[in-house]
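Late entry, evening session. Most of the bench is empty. Finally got around to the prediction I had been postponing all week. Sequence below, unchanged from the version circulated by S.P.
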Amino acid sequence: MSVLICIDPGHVKGYNRGAYAPYYEGTKMYDLGVMLKEELEKYNGIEVFLTRNSVEENPSLAQRGNMALRKGARCFLSLHSDAC
């Protein structure tokens, strides 16, 4: 039996600039999501998909959640770095 995980890299490319000038949350969360997907898929029985297939994509929050529901994901992981 496999487990399907949905990774949602929050925001979109170039969104939410950090205190460090070249850092943008939307861009870095996409990079992190891709790396996390690759690592999780090394485990037997784990399947992973991203809500954004490119750094430029920007589905709405409702669309992101519906992707997970429609595909039958058991886990929805939303990546963000702007919280305290």
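Two things to note before I forget:
The first strand starts at residue 3 and ends at 9.
The longest helix spans residues 25-40.
Will write this up properly tomorrow.
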